[in-house]
Input
Amino acid sequence: MQTKNVDVAVIGGGTAGLNARRSALAYTDSVVLIEGGIWGTTCARVGCMPSKLLIAAAESVHAIERAPGFGVHTENAPCIKGDEVMGRVLAERDRFVGFVLEGVDNIPPEQKIIGNARFLDNHTLDIGEPGELRIKAKRIVIATGSHTVIPASLAKFSTAIITNDDLFSMKELPQSVAVFGSGVIGLELTQALHRLGVDVRLFGRSGRIRPITDPKLRDYTEEALNEEYYVAPKDPVTSMEEDGDRVKITYTDRKGKEAVFHAQYLFAATGRRPSVENLGLENTDLELDSHGIPTVADRNTMQTSVPTIFIAGDASNQSAILHEATDQGRIAGANAGSYPEINHGLRRSNLSIVFSDPQIAMIGDSYGHLQKEYGKNGFSVGEVSFTGQGRARTMLRNKGMLRVYGDRKSSRFLGAEMFGPDAEHLGHLLAWAHQMELTVEKMLEMPFYHPTVEEGVRTALQDLQKKMKKDKDKEEDRRQEKAG
Output
């Protein structure tokens, strides 16, 4: 048996793992990166980049279809050639993956190990077949990523089931798809496929548009999306059965009537689970949560309950977002390299974006979190509708709502949830303000150019400012009543 002794072993060659390795190397040259699957990142290969390529194609079709609203007409309807659409998606996807693989190729061979890792104890890993290679590591970073979860109700239709991994290997657009899951992946890809001429239905599992926690915004979003394609956040399916080369889905439509949909494919967008089940965690002293995932003792250090084991990226089950995986990998790798010296790394304000149309953005503390933190009436809410917003109307993109939250005692901006035009850009501005812990007053001192969509942010903040004053006055009246 071959045994290799190292200071730091990083398990996983994705975004978090690559960043963890790079950070650890600032402290020691004795670092190995272990990968049991395909080198490269989920984002570049089957995640954010190919999905945005598909969405870009769909947006081009939608722009043509929307043109008559400006008085611009075409003689013929758009001709969508599925093979060309997917050809560009796959070619550009491979280009993005190629950049990642170039970086992997530049890693010295002695620092790369191919094979599945399994813990034997807190410091020992078996690689590949038992007895093939053993790694003795002083510190270990778990960065094994995540994988798609396929519910049992779908798994029995094995020949029809696809995930984003399968979709982004197709050379032609599918004909009909039933999407299960109303989270980020489900929302983005259902709309994109619909606009590209694919017959789609979106069946949720959780009962809500998952990224959104604000009830008013959630209801508005569901209604708005249903104006374009079928969205049912609460599972309405009554039966599924094979019917030739299709799956026959019987469901209750939004009017309460029985409907039937024949799907060529069942797209599982029902969430992802950290890929830690085959790591031999039972052989360590790691504390695991109810799902068998190592708990993070401190999110600012990414240290687990075992001081010499760190975790990062999707494997940590904190936030499956690329910039979060990058930050977590950097923090975990740096602390694994510098151990026993442990430092707090930079954790940024929450920012997540769904590239639907209109887009969805979640900034800072969500409505749901604030309800738990402050109570139902412990914070103030301002809002703006984009229906009449000047710049949005000029672009025929005047659909959406922004809800902003503030601490009425300190006037600090707490967070926001949005469904509307340019949410990816407005979300960044609001996230920067949140990270700087600005008050609503300070935010309103910033410049707002006319006419821009950003003026909608100002309107929402002005509404929040009024609501905070009103809520404070009510609290003071109640206090005086009790005192009197």
